[in-house]
Structures are given as structure tokens and as C-alpha cells.
Design brief:
Elements (H helix, E strand, L loop, with lengths): L9 H23 L5 H21 L10 H24 L2 H8 L2 H13 L5 H23 L1
Helix pairs in contact: 2-3, 4-6
Length: 146
């Protein structure tokens, strides 16, 4: 979702809902780290999300080519590692320090999209990246002063 005169796709609303849900999940993870280890949080996440993901996958199930299995395992290990690292970071640091670093994923994903998938980068991508980087810098400065 970005500024412009184009018609907004209804799926953009789902992306915004997902962003709110992601923020809520991080707040809950931060609260859980007070009494639970990052490993326990990730284990519970798996137990909760596996049946939900399976139910969603069954609506459009397609056979998996065995040549894709190593990539699926790599993606799964990467995702679990990312969740564990995020829980560990939220346990050790204030969220005002962790989240600005996490938001760097957005401009880095734009760069990866450009180089790996030949996606176009226009002025709006640069403007969005500048807003993210500027707000991260401002948050870190405010945290250092506070």
C-alpha cells in the first residue's frame, strides 16, 4: 500500500490486518519472555500454528515435489531460527531497540527483490525506505537520550 491514484486492491487490507496481528504477536512475545524461555515460546508457537497452517493449506493442497524438500526444510529452519532470535532479543532488550532493527527488513527486502527477482524500485520505495530508516534513527536517538 502506497500513495498514488491507483485503485487499492482489497488484498491490501489483508496485509494491513496481518501487520497489526504481527505487532500484537510481538507484544505478546515480549510479555511471555518475562516468565518463559525463547525455546518454550517457539515450541508453543509451533504447536499452535501447525494445525492452523495445515487447515489453511488443505484448502488449496498440491502435491510437493521431493526436489523442493531441501528448500522447504531450509525455509523452516530459517523461520524457526528467526522466531527464536526475535524472542531472545525481546527477552534481553527493550522493544524500542529491537523493533527498529527489525523494520530494516523492509528496505532490505526491496534490495533483495531488485537483485534476485528484477523487481522495479521506484521513488516510492526510496521514500518508504527513507521514512523507515529516519524513524529508526529517531527512535534510537530518543532511547539513547532517555
Amino acid at each position: 500500500v502506497r500513495p498514488g491514484i491507483g485503485i487499492a486492491d482489497p488484498a491490501a487490507g489483508l496485509v494491513l490486518v496481518a501487520a497489526v496481528a504481527y505487532g500484537l504477536s510481538l507484544v505478546l512475545v515480549k510479555q511471555l519472555t518475562r516468565e518463559n524461555s525463547p525455546g518454550a515460546i517457539v515450541a508453543w508457537m509451533i504447536l499452535i500454528q501447525l494445525p492452523l497452517g495445515l487447515a489453511a493449506a488443505l484448502t488449496d493442497w498440491r502435491p510437493v515435489d521431493m526436489s523442493a524438500l531441501p528448500w522447504i526444510l531450509l525455509a523452516g529452519i530459517g523461520a524457526l531460527s528467526a522466531h527464536f532470535c526475535m524472542a531472545q532479543a525481546l527477552r534481553r532488550l527493550d522493544a524500542s531497540i529491537v523493533m527498529p532493527v527489525d523494520f530494516l527488513r523492509v528496505p532490505l527486502a526491496a534490495v533483495a527483490g531488485y537483485y534476485l527477482y528484477s523487481e522495479a524500485i521506484d521513488i516510492w520505495v526510496f521514500l518508504g525506505g527513507a521514512i523507515i530508516l529516519g524513524s529508526n534513527l529517531q527512535a534510537l536517538r530518543a532511547e539513547r537520550r532517555g
